[in-house]
């Protein structure tokens, strides 16, 4: 039946906190507890968590179900800084009735693995990406190894619009044909289409990667300043070993 809790700032190392099944409406008493990893706030009377939880970067489990949270965007924004958050419960809140609620949370909180007691699937992540960032989804799909592009930039999720035929991929044999064409021209050709064989993409990447060069010298054969003054002889050129690789 607690409606409020005094500040817990004196417990600097507090990691686990159960305050569920109360009537709490304000979370300002947690603003100094940076080490929290598990926080159970379910079955309370919370209507807004703005400014109360965003500092909990180490939080891994957060239960907020069965409260009165109404603003989905505002609530998710507060949780974005929780890069370690893996388990999250938001069901039985008014915001959970939004038709795109689950996909919205999955997209903007990518670290969450278990949402409302259900595992987040790869298919859900792909659908959320197509819904909230279609351009990025198209780019990622177009450069994926082992498959062709099956959607265009303008295609929406669930659309039955026919896709244009994919372009023919550039293979190593084409590379030999081009010879010494400028690298930027080759890169333009490579980025336009995916590859049928992942090894072709690896070869293209290897041929366009910058060269790395390492040189080594046997410093035991290099004369010191004192030795140079005592000897009037002409010094032999240093033996330098240079290795180049991609």
UniProtKB/TrEMBL annotation:
Q: Coiled-coil region(s) at which residues?
A: none
Q: List, alphabetically, the PROSITE patterns matched.
A: LRR
Q: Which Pfam families does its entry note?
A: LRR_9 (PF14580)
SUPFAM superfamilies xrefs? Outer arm dynein light chain 1
Cited InterPro entries: Leu-rich_rpt (IPR001611), LRC72 (IPR042655), LRR_dom_sf (IPR032675)
Where, by residue number, does the polypeptide cross the bilayer? none
* PANTHER family in UniProt: LEUCINE-RICH REPEAT-CONTAINING PROTEIN 72
Q: What is this protein called?
A: LRC72 protein
Q: What is the lineage of its organism?
A: Eukaryota, Metazoa, Chordata, Craniata, Vertebrata
